[in-house]
Design brief:
Elements lengths: L4 H25 L6 H13 L3 H23 L2 H26 L14
Helix pairs in contact: 1-2, 2-3
Length: 116
């Protein structure tokens, strides 16, 4: 692509658009159950194929995730369990609020306890 100058700018614009959409979708889904952060990182991978700033941001993210993982691995079991419980409570809370705001889907059993 880079050898054909006429296609270089449209290709970079397309990669930028697709990468930005993937990152934006990931950011929106971060608080929801699912792979929000992985989606953001996947979008950064797409952007990093054409943009140096995205490659630097991806490297920064990789270093921070590695540092967090190593730090958490050095902590006592009760700290790791506490982080897991707090994370699960946060995700559960976001899920309950989201279902309250947008409504419970019709396929969910009627016993799901949400306030009215």
């Amino acid at each position: 692509m880079h050898a054909r100058r006429s296609l270089d700018a449209p290709y970079r614009a397309l990669v930028g658009l697709i990468g930005a959409l993937v990152v934006a979708f990931g950011i929106v889904t971060i608080p929801l159950p699912g792979p929000g952060w992985l989606t953001v990182i996947a979008g950064l991978f797409v952007l990093a194929t054409e943009f140096a700033w995205a490659e630097r941001l991806l490297e920064y993210t990789r270093r921070r995730v590695t540092q967090w993982t190593e730090w958490l691995g050095r902590q006592p079991v009760w700290v790791r369990v506490g982080v897991a419980v707090l994370t699960a409570a946060f995700v559960y809370g976001v899920l309950v609020v989201t279902l309250h705001v947008i409504g419970v889907p019709h396929w969910v059993p009627g016993w799901v306890p949400l306030w009215h």
